[in-house]
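#structure-requests
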Amino acid sequence: MSRVPGLSAIVMGAAMLVVPLGTTGAANAQTLRAAPHANLEFLDPIWTTAYITRSHGYLVYDTLFGMDENFEPQPQMVSEWSVSEDGLLWSFTLRPELRWHDGTDVTAADSVASLQRWAARDGVGQALFELVEEITAEDATTFTIQLSHPFPRMLHALGKMSSNVPFIMPARIAATPASQPVTDPTGSGPFIFALDEWDPARRAVYIRNDDYVPREEPTSLTAGAKIPFMERIEFVFFDTHEEAVAATLAGDIHFFESPSTTVTDRFADQDVAILEVTDPSGNVGMAVFNHLAAPFDDPDIRRAVLMAMSQEDYMRAALGNADYWQTCRSIYPCGTPYSVEGSASGFMGGDVEAARQMLADAGYDGTAVVIMDPVDSPVISAFTGVTLALFEELGINVDHQPMPWTELVERRVIRTAEVGEVWNMFHTWWIADDLSDPLRIAFSGNPETGWIGWPDAPELAVLRRSFLLAESNEAAAQAAQQVQDVILDGAHFAILGQFFEPIAFNAAIMGLQRPIQMYYNLAMPPAE
């Protein structure tokens, strides 16, 4: 018997969504088709920060805590928790009705193994586990975390909403080294991944998990009831945005995740789909240097490049309409608590003449720069085009390598020529929340455990720990500013600006959340 409620209601802000469901009838035959921003090439949301894999993760896995619409943590897989008076011992008990997709019980040991693996890849997880003396499965449903120092943001860490999300996996799968992507998608979430229907070039399919037991609280972002309203969810991968637009306007695609602003005029004066910007914080463009390979192993050459780069050029090329972007010369997104602009001279200065002189002074010798260009991602490929033109102007020798985004994600983990085809630079973007404080993985200075690019700045570990243990808002802000100063002085990466991509969705779709859309609660009216 299905455990999905026969009549479920969830609250989205001030709106109530009521969708009838049952085990038979038209509603069960429904399929929600979505065009995500990228193809699903990898199934492991711990191994990669790719957002398409994060979306996959929210369908097939669950989390110990979730973040509600006020960005406060709420219990998800956890039923009860406690913390000792000195703040050093945390205890968590799981809900009794949790089952893996293979029918076995979710246990505390699964949670322990999953958190350990997550902490090996994620910046917040790394910060937390610096304080963990012991994490122990006390019995089948309860585990404890013993700390060396109080960590008041424990629940925020366990409910981290974006990459890398601390999804819980079976212990046998979580035993996979964090440096190696898992290939078994067994989870405990509201949908089951149809591995036999997966074609990374065309589609990914998710089947409703009728044994999933949602929480009783109203849905609120990643917290509360995760209700699988649809029988099937299909991620459909298109070769071009024009094809995805046509399918959306024809009603074949119900949710278009990230339409390029070059095609948004196609949504004017029609009744099928709605175009809307849902995230007021937006996204942050970034250009990533490989610090381990010449020429960007030289910080002076990186500084010269940053001197020449202009955020306005990148934003105009990628977004066009100024309603969709703003400049922000801070490593923390503008509008977030630690954002301070203009603290480093020459950062994204747009001064080509000064940059040419800096390159000459640094002794740039014409070494070729391999730039990976994901041609199936309009925004990122537009970023790449700006850099290609700029490097030609600067006299930097370029090896331009076009490829699909999925190939870039696979190649970008290659550090040096000894282990594969080396690269020097690529462009990407993050949602603003993923760059909102110093603990985020992009700000690590540890070349062994940090994010791709692998800068070596040991002082960042000290500063990030100061932020972690700060006893006042003022001390935290000071540590955050010092982290930014080190990163900008070392020219770790380029910030290309802050932008606000719209989403397009069928006018009949229900369950849309803001600022981030969760597919498990999206629904379409039953077919007549």
